[in-house]
Amino acid sequence: MARTRSGHAQRVDPSLAATRRRPRSVIPTLADPITDYPTADKVPKTALFADGSRHEYRLEMIAILFKFVCERHAIQQRRLAGLAPPWTRDEWLQNYPFTNVFRVLDRNSQFILLRVIGDSPDNIQDAVFRVLLFRMFNKIETWELLEQHLGKITFQGFDTRAYCRIFETAGVTLYNAAYIIPAPKLGYNSNYENHLRLIEAMMNDGDLTGDLLQCKHIRDAHVRLLRWPSMGNFTAMQILLDLNMLSYFNWSEDEWVELGPGSKSCLRKIFPNLNVSAHAQEALRYLRDHQWSWYSTVGATQDQIPRLSAERPRGLSMVDIEHSLCECEKYSRGKLQHIPGPRTHVGKRRFAPRAGAPPTADVPAHWLAVRAPEDLPCPPPVEGKDVYEVECIVDEDRARYKVRWLGWGPEGDTWEPKEQVADGSPVLVDRWEESKQKVAESLQSRMRTATAKPKRKMAQRSSSLLTRAGRRLTL
């Protein structure tokens, strides 16, 4: 896979650390919202969202968010340049670990990009399989354990029994504590075997790869992935962001994002009266669209505004803002202790730089191309009147399908009664139901191969497993 190195990276040979004195960081000072806005929390401020709704916000909390993203990204840039610590004067950023502003620059994401994807055979099945396998465990050491025993990991060579034998005798923790994906209840004795069987179902007759290739937007892919057991809203989003580093997918990360619990908590701190369930996406769009004025508010120069690489424009996408909101919520527990939240401790452990190779800052090559606007041709009018034609079904609930209209993007999606859609677009309904049926049958076939259990209990478990969000997948 072609990869592009960030223009800011400068590798330092660790063996020279003891003999060569590295330059000290030159750390500019940004405005401090606490001292610059001592009464900000007492002055109501109102934000006008794009949907026309108005919401009060805490000025100092928004200022803290954008000061945080500037300083956290500056720390990463100073580390890449080989500067000696401390990389910041901020005591909270010095003493506690926070992820990067750009998710792709985090350690696990870089490992996925360079090792899981970068070393993958040049075909989509292997690439998707390897990403799913890594993310189920989300632990670099587990991936390296498999490579030690199996060599290059491929879908063609995937043997669940061989993998299980490796894990049975490993004697180490296989799972990372972050972004845990619960094991599906497919009837096996160990979590890892249930996870492996789930991957097997996804990659074989479940045809997850084919389903995702049909999706033009990440929110549509999110719905497809949620059909599978153990996929929570947030963890499914993380898997899709990993898959989006593959050249086979190129979903926009600036039109919609699923929020995690930390991001939602931070939004409530910023907009104290916000109904997050109803207005989270509009809140993110507001922060994205107005970020430039907030950079100015905290005293950031143009060069201090975060930038993923020299080939990309400065500023944050919706995915970047969601990622940063989660970390800023932790940061605000120390910096703005008077603002209430569900947790008060900044972190469980102190920050200590990892020994060994310096951090990397690679980005997927296909991210550097300018994204062409989506071509949305509308059907021609009939007798001078506009024609509305359903292009595809993108979601459902008990009584309705969510439909995408020909010539419109996701912002034009509407919920329509199932009977009405079935009458007008029976082929699309059949296609949608068939894709659900593939998932159900694939899971059922894996459950039949599980350790023998009483048939009644297995049937009950199957019925429970294949019911999701009020929608029963008919077997």
UniProtKB/TrEMBL annotation:
Organism per entry: Phlebiopsis gigantea (strain 11061_1 CR5-6)
Residue ranges of coiled coil: none
Stated name of the protein: Chromo domain-containing protein
PROSITE patterns xrefs: CHROMO_1, CHROMO_2
Domain of life according to the entry: Eukaryota
Region (Disordered): 439-475
Keywords: Nucleus
Cell compartments where the protein resides: Nucleus
Gene Ontology biological process terms, A to Z: chromatin remodeling
